[in-house]
Each structure stands twice: as structure tokens, then as C-alpha cells.
Amino acid sequence: MSTRRLLLAALAGLLVCGVGGAQAPAQPGWTGTLTCAVPVQDMKSAQSWYRDTLGFKAAATASEKWAVLETPLPALRLALFPAPKDARGGGAWLTFGVKDLAAARKKLESKQVKFVGNTVTVAGMVKLATFEDPDGNKFKLFQLLQPGAERIPGVGALDYTRSVVASHAVKSLKAAVAWYGENLGFRFFFNLPTMKFCELHTPVRGVAFGLQETERPAVGGGPVLLWGVKDLKTARSLLQSRKIKPAEGTAPLPDGQPGVTFLDPDGNRMLFTNDPPVGKGTKTKEKTDG
After folding, report:
1. CB distance 43 to 67 below 8 Å
2. Which of 229, 243, 257, 263 could pair covalently with 253 via S-S, beta carbons 3.0-4.6 A apart?
3. Residue 214 reports pLDDT greater than 90
4. pTM recorded for the entire structure
5. What's the pLDDT at 230?
6. How many CB atoms within 10 Å of residue 112?
């Protein structure tokens, strides 16, 4: 796609999402980190799957209730926590950038990873594919198709490009973009009108925030996004000043780990945390082949 067409697409996104030039709101004091907490049924089996299939590494000694994994993106971690089967489904999802989606998909399928549907291509822009972990949590892969994208270096098991989109499903893109902009300071920068999808800037390097418009967002279960902040009291006060009532409980955080839980207008659950613990033990040493 030409530069002119890309600019026109972005302009269309601005109009669709209703983004204006409002002054940036006060921020909750971001640490620049994000943890995606993923519910699983068998902690030991899930840790092995993420390590052997996606190439993620253990950040520290795991417990029976909390296991943190490092992703190819330094500011992004995955945390596994035990949950019954009926507590999964819906929630947030992560989309990992890769250099060659066809090659990454082939590699995952050779390991019996289940993909949902065919690879979707938006000509001149992006390729997308959806897959599931053994517990049914959904993830996606994307490959940029714009000129110059081939020069982005790849790292890790799937040739990751160190670019991730963390997403929520919402009923209205326009309303959601306004809410996240006014309350969290996430600013619109890209839109795919044909897919009813927007991306917003976040305070986490390499991580964009995605909004997928759908008639019935699946909320109440599934992965949860934990945004790192410097001071929970300040973050809580900021929410209250914007008439956002903190929700009860700090699950899925381990017992005793402080956090502030809140919901967006569509019921998507998130937490502010002082960066979730990576474990009480020492960092594990990864085994290497050869």
C-alpha cells in the first residue's frame, strides 16, 4: 500500500474513532511494564507448553498459584495462574508480531497447536492468524506487509519482531477510544475499518493496545491485563477522580500481592499493580541444547 493510502486509512480511523486534539489527561505513574495473566488448569503442563512451543523462559521459581514467563519483549511478561475450566474464555488477548507468519504457523502446527480458521490477509498491510493454548486461551500472530517490514529483525522461537498488541473486545470503537484516552491516556494511532479494529499507544515500549468492536464482547473470564504503576494509592485516587469505581478483589494476583482492580465500560477487567512478583525464589537457569 502506498504512503498516501496509509495516510488516508489513518485519517479514516481518526474520523471513525472520533479522536480529537484534547489535552492529555493526568497519568497514574506508569512503570512501563505489562503482565498478561493467563488462566490454566495444570500449572506444570502449561509452563512446559509455553516454554517448548512459544519459546518463553521462566522468569523465576514458580509456585502452585503463580508462574511468570519472559516473552521476547522485555517489558511484557506472561503470568500463569490456576483457574477452573469455566473461568476461562473471553478476556484480553495478545497478538505477537513475527517476521514470517506462514513459517511460524507451520512450526506451531507441527507441534499440534490448534489454529482457529485460516490466515487473514489485509492487502499491503498485515497478515493475521489466531491460535489457542491447550486451555483454550486465544492468541494471535501478525506479520506486517508494508514496505520495509522485511528489515525488522526477528528473535526467538518464532522469529518474533518484538512488537505486541494487547487487546480487548468492545461494543463501540468510538466510545472505547474516548474512554481509554480520557482515563488512561492511551492515544489512537491506527485503524483497520474493514475489521472494526483500532490500535492505541500505551506507556509500555513495544506494546500497542487494540480494541476490537463486536456486538457481544466476551468478558468475565480469560486473560487479564496487569498494568504496572509506581504508586497504587495515586492510581486509585486517579480512578476515583474520574468516577471509575475500583472493583472488589485482586485476583488473579497471588494472596497478599496488592493491586487495584477496575473495569472499562464494557466490563473488561484490568488491574494496576506495583509490578506483579516474579516469584519468591531465585531466577531459574534455562537448559540449552547442545
Report:
1. yes
2. 257
3. yes
4. 0.87
5. 93
6. 8
Report in angstroms the alpha-carbon separations of 260 from 140, 161, 269, 274.
28, 31, 11, 10
Q: How far apart are CA 107 and CA 217, in angstroms?
A: 31
Query: How many residues can be counted in the chain?
Result: 290
Lowest mean pLDDT among 23-27, 46-50, 253-257: 23-27
Q: Enter the C-alpha cell of residue 223.
A: 486473560
Q: Cα–Cα distances in Å, from 49 out to 58, 83, 160?
A: 12, 17, 17
Can you tell me the distance from the alpha carbon of 132 to that of 15, in angstroms, rounded to the nearest whole number? 34
Q: How far is it, in rounded angstroms, from Cα 279 to Cα 61?
A: 6
DSSP the chain: --HHHHHHHHHHHHHHHT---PPPPP---EEEEEEEEEEES-HHHHHHHHHHHH--EE-S---SS-EEEE-SSTTEEEEEEE--GGG-SSS-EEEEEES-HHHHHHHHHTTTPEEEEEEEEETTTEEEEEEE-TT--EEEEEEE-STTGGGS--BTTTTEEEEEEEEEEES-HHHHHHHHHHHH---EEEEEGGGTEEEEE-SSTTEEEEEEE-SS---SSS-EEEEEES-HHHHHHHHHHTT-PPBS--TTSPTT--EEEEE-TT--EEEEES-----SSPPPPPP---
Q: pLDDT for 130-142, tens place per residue?
A: 999 999 999 999 9
Residue 92: the pLDDT is 96
What domains can be seen in the chain, in order of their start residue? 3-273 (3.10.180.10)
